[in-house]
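Researcher: We're teaching a course module on how sequence relates to structure. For the next exercise, students receive a sequence and then see the predicted structure as C-alpha cells, so they can try to spot secondary structure elements on their own. Here is the exercise chain.
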Amino acid sequence: EEIIKLIFGFKVKYLRQQKNFSYQELSDLTGLVVSYLHDIEKGRKYPKVDKINALASALGVDYDYLVSTQASKKIQPIVDLVQSDFFKAFPLELFGITPAKLFELFSTTPDKVNAFISTITKIARNYQMKNEHFYMAALRSYQDIYDNYFEDIEQAVEKFTATFEVKPDLPLTPQYLEELLETHYHITINRNEIIDYAELRQVRSYFSKSKKVLYLNKGLNRAQELFLLARELGFQFLDLKERPYLTRIEQVDSFEQLLNNFKASYFSVALLMPEQVLIKDIRQLAEQTSWKPQILIALLKKYEVTPEMFLQRLTNLLPHHFGINDLFFFADER
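Model: And here is the predicted structure for the students to work with:
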C-alpha cells in the first residue's frame, strides 16, 4: 500500500536527519546504495527484511518500530493524520497534490508541521468540526482557485445541447426538460406522491435510483422546478455516480458526493442560462448609463430563474469573461 511505503520512508528520513547522517553515511552503515535509500525515503521502494534490519541497526531503532505505524511523539500526529479516514477521503488531487508530495513537505520541517497538525486537530475537536466542514472548505477553495468558472462543465453543456438538439428558445420549460429526462434517460417525474412520505414533505425533490423516478414537491415554483430538472440532467449526462438523492444534503458521506452535487448544480444553471447568450445580455446591461432595475427583472423572466440562480450564474461568468474577480453581495431587506 502506498501510504505504508510513504510512512516507512518518512520515518527513515526523519531518523536519518535526527542522526545527522548524509545519504552516503547511511549507505556506508547499511550497505544500501544511495539511490536506493533515496527511493525508500520517497516512498517508491519498500525494502526486504534484511535491509530493514540493516536500516534499523544504523538508525538506532528496532525492526518492529521501523515497520509499524507507531512513531515518536514528535511525528506521531503526522502518521495518524495520513492514516485517518478524513485524509483518505480528502481530494488532494484537486489541488495538484499527491501523498508523496505531502510527505516531502512534512519531512522538511516535521516538528513545525506536527505542531500545526496538533493545533488544527485540537481546534476541530473543540469546535466539534466534522468531515463535512472540511469538505465544504475544500470545495470553496476549489471554486476560488478557478474563480468559480469550470470550462469542462461549460463544454459539457454545449455538448449536451448539440447531442440532444436542445431548442434555442428561452426560457426552457419544465415540460421540455421532463421530455429530455424521459426520452434519453427513462426517468419519469412524479409530483403527487412525495407528500405521502412524512420524512420527504419538507424536501424539494428526491430521486429514486431503483425506480428511476424524480419526485418533486408540489409547492415548487417554475424556476425551482427548472433548476431541479436541469440538475438531474446534469447528474445523468455527466455520469456522476456518487451523488445525493435529496435536494438538501443532510449528511455528506464523501467529498466526491459534495463535488458532484456542485457539478450538477453548475450544469443546471449553465443549461438554463447559456454562456454566450447571457454574456451578450451582461454586456448590454453594462452599457446602460443609469441604473435600470427593470432590465434585471426582464432577464429573470427571460430565463425564468430565481434571483439566487441568476446571481450564481454571474459568479461563473463575471470573473472569467469580464475580469471582475472580487464580488460582494449586499442585501437590502427594507
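Model: If you want an answer key for the exercise: The chain has a mean pLDDT of 89. The chain has two domains: 2-129, 147-334.
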